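Weekly modeling sync, notes
Attendees: AB, CL, MP (scribe)

Item 1: holo prediction request
CL wants a bound-state model with allantoate ion before deciding which constructs to order. AB pointed out that an apo prediction alone won't tell us much about the pocket. Agreed to run with the ligand included and paste results into these notes for async review.

Input as submitted:
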Amino acid sequence: MDGPDGTTPDLPDLASRALGGSVVVANDELFAERENLIRPEAPRFDSTEFGHKGKVYDGWETRRRREPGHDWAIVRLGAAGVLDHVVVDTAFFKGNYPPEISVEAASVEGYPADLTRATWYPVVERSAAQGDTANVYKVDDDRRFTHVRLSIFPDGGVARLRVHGTVVADPRFLAGTIDLLAAEHGGRLVECSDAFYASPANLTLPGLARHMGEGWENARRRGGGNDYAVFALAAGGVPRHVEVDTTWFVGNAPGWVSVSTRDSRAGTDWTTLLDRVEVRPDTRHRFLLPDAPAADHLRLDVFPDGGLSRLRLWGDLDPDAARAARERWWGLLPEDHRALVADQAPV
Ligand SMILES: NC(=O)NC(NC(N)=O)C(=O)[O-]
């Protein structure tokens, strides 16, 4: 189902700090720090809070411009990918929002010091923005980008920048035994029974959860049945072991869990890898998966309900998936990036 203006809903925010994004540089941030732009949580506002430089805002805010020009900030995406839509959220910026914005994107190899010298491609033309509004802009560009540059005309404040899209991992780093479920590798939530408090997509974020709110939490189940989540793996591969982390879930961990996989490439049905097993609260469990078949989807069942903070499926890409990942990456690289890594072209 489409979202507003043909956007695809439920795609991850590639810029989010939760995925490792960073606001690398901005030309000005006198009133409010650029880093706020990519905080994962919703922006907040306290009408009574003033600091040394003026009203405190949970966002990025530049000073009133007294000369021609405009303000800008560059964001390194936590995970590179193909962009679907950008949200420029001006929440609480009412008399000081930018009336117009534009967004460009770049595909950068390595870690250059000066990102202003990258090749920047327009992905959202200069467009009107409203104050105190989550402004949504569709992106129609099939290339894979690593960075975005938000420009605001002429100046003002933006609470959050969300860059929703599909992760396309660099296949050179998908070697060896990796977490086949990780969002940063391209793993994604396909469906779930209940995300009342927080989405199961959180289970695939990098690092450990810092509190219960960073995991998946469903509501207390009052009827029959059990809660579940289905994920597409980053790429097809052979699972070695699974990590089921209930850390922070003390009074609301599941009683039992099971894990199944299937290979949609071969059209196979679900195979149970981990039969219903009892789990403990606040514990990182690891279960070996000997003789697991190749798979590209995973289903987690929790009984009867309950939350987890992380789910990892460690395994190795199979040769077909590794080849497909390299061809996809190469096909989506912008021309200037392809020229830099010509020796990496798939054979
Ligand atoms: N009340 C304000 O927001 N004023 C100014 N901004 C801050 N942060 O104080 C301004 O001029 O945009």
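Recorded for review: Residues 319-332 form the longest helix (14 residues).
Action items: CL to compare against the apo run; MP to circulate these notes.
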